[in-house]
Amino acid sequence: MTGASGRIGRWVVRGLVGAGARVRAMSRDPEAARALLPAGVEIVPGDFTRPETWSAALDGVRRVHLFPRVDPEGGFVRRAVEAGTRRFVVHSAVAAGFAEGGTPTSALSPLERHLAHERDWHRGVERSVEATGVEWTHVRPGLPANWALGWADGIRGAGEVRSPHPGSASVVVHEADVAEIAVSALLTDDHFGATYTITGPGPITQAEQVRTIGAALGREIRFVELTPEQARAEWHDPAGGIDDDVLDWLIPLLASPLVDIVPATTTYEEITGRPPRTFAQWAHDNVADFQ
């Protein structure tokens, strides 16, 4: 497991452990990972940026859940195959399936440049795996529901969410749905060469998400609508990674028809026979983060 401590990764690990699989997690912070992962998971130090840590992490590993922060040039992937890995399940992103345009980068808007970068990065990781000739499956999550965790401080403190565009709708996906497909791809032989885009059941606006979180908490959460200019002033935090370059694409993203950029798919239901988990289920599963 790479990315084992992440929100989706933790669900993947739980699914693998529940199925009786032996799991090794590579982590930059093994002590922190140990507090998040189930007992019985072997946790070893490792970092995609430190090749000297890869050999110990990959020794004896036959199947890899590949987190997208890996270098798309494929150094880690090649080392894994050399060590004996015969199957990759790539934690990719819906952006990998975006169409490539012919417009020069300099002529793109900040949002268009961001989406093109996301596409190129994730598709690069996918291609590095495909080039190995071993078994692979690409799992492309849509917009993760856990983006709403960015509201947690405001909900816990002032009992409010401050954002522009309350009517902006997106199709968000529960991390458990993504993990369930990844676990099946790791443990069964049913998904070789498949690319799956996993989304939630349908669009939900920012305001509806806030009301849903409030229902899970049993209290009303206020939505304070900001202008784009107010959001830029309040959210600007270079030390926290939110600088002008990020705000230049993030705020227009909220104003965009997100349901057109990432529409709902039926992939999860086609594979499992069950409808995707709703945002209400996600809010219930994560209510402690907002308390």
Description:
Helix 8 packs across helix 13 and helix 9 runs antiparallel to helix 10. The chain is globular. It has 291 residues and is α/β, with parallel strands linked by helices. The strands form five sheets. The protein has a four-stranded parallel beta sheet with strand order 3-4-5-10, sandwiched between helices. It has a two-stranded parallel ribbon with strand order 1-2. A two-stranded parallel ribbon has the order 6-9. Helix content is 42%, strand content 15%.
Cα-atom radius of gyration? 20 Å
Counting DSSP H or I runs of 4 or more residues, the number of helices is: 13
Number of strands: 12
How are strands sequenced across the largest beta sheet? 3-4-5-10
Question: Between the first and last Cα atoms, what is the distance in angstroms?
Answer: 30 Å
What's the main sheet like? 4 strands, parallel
The helix content, as a percent range, equals 40-55%
Residue fraction in strands:
15-25%
Let me know the average pLDDT.
95
What would you call the shape?
globular
| Low-pLDDT regions | none
Order of helices and strands: HEHEHEHEHEEHEEEHEEHEHHHHH
Question: Class by helix and strand content?
Answer: alpha/beta
Domain NAD(P)-binding: 3-187
Protein name: NmrA family protein
Pfam families: NAD_binding_10 (PF13460)
InterPro entries: Ergot_Alk_Oxidoreductase, NAD(P)-bd_dom, NAD(P)-bd_dom_sf
